[in-house]
Amino acid sequence: MKILFFLVTFLISGSLLAAESSNKNMPKHEWSFKGITGTFDKAALQRGYKVYREVCEGCHSMKLLYYRDLMDIGFSEAEVKAIASEYTVLDGPNDEGEMFERSARPADRFVSSYANENEARASNNGAYPPDLSVITKARKHGEDYIYNLLIGYEEPPENIEVGDGMYYNKWMDGNQIAMPQPIYDESVDYDDGTDNNEKQIAKDVVAFLKWSAEPELEVRKNLGIKAILFFLVLGTVVYLAKNRLWRRVH
Ligand code: HEC
User: Does 250 score more than 80 pLDDT?
Assistant: First the structure.
């Protein structure tokens, strides 16, 4: 009976692993924030924000971010004020009980291009462009998947019929996506002289999305290293103390 149980468990877990492995060939990429000492490259994050602003923001919101969060990636207070002031938010009610528009401030959340999901769907052929605030956490293979997706547009193979308003993409589930290819070479001008080819632009925007999903990443990794060092030192002290205490016991 027991053997049967183990056999069944073994077979089930085997097939689950097999299902998993179909996704294993997701190409991985070099990221500055990977590994135990990983950090964000602020210049890349600032370029990534520019890409978000100039390309993705037209369709995708990032509602969990505040303009003041941009100071985290190296923008000055004045720059953040200037960025925020380019957006309009609905505020109120005022003393007369009316809602009014004003320009955004650093303490406001990122303003979305669409008023609501229905408007977003109506403008995108019925598909909903998901909020990008924590998208690297919301998708398997996070940053690697999103990067591959952004540069994964191709002509469909001959035997595949792509639906109306859909585009062929190697990495999307079912290979069809309602998002038209957003990034091409030179889609965004960089001020810091970085080559603005398609891959670089995709890489920068993905780094920005990683930061927005895990702004605490550097602190967390730093703490991890400190914890390891602490236990190494503690371990050495305890070991020496033990040797000393037991020195005369034979
Ligand atoms: C013209 C509108 C438009 C623009 C511009 C756009 N997207 Fe999208 N995006 C969409 C739509 C619509 C979907 C939903 C696709 C679907 O469900 O088939 C989507 C889906 C996505 C997804 C989720 C894919 C998945 O696995 O479900 C990601 C990630 C994404 N977009 C990132 C970006 C980034 C990054 C940019 C900027 C470089 C961008 N998008 C620009 C419309 C847009």
Answer: no
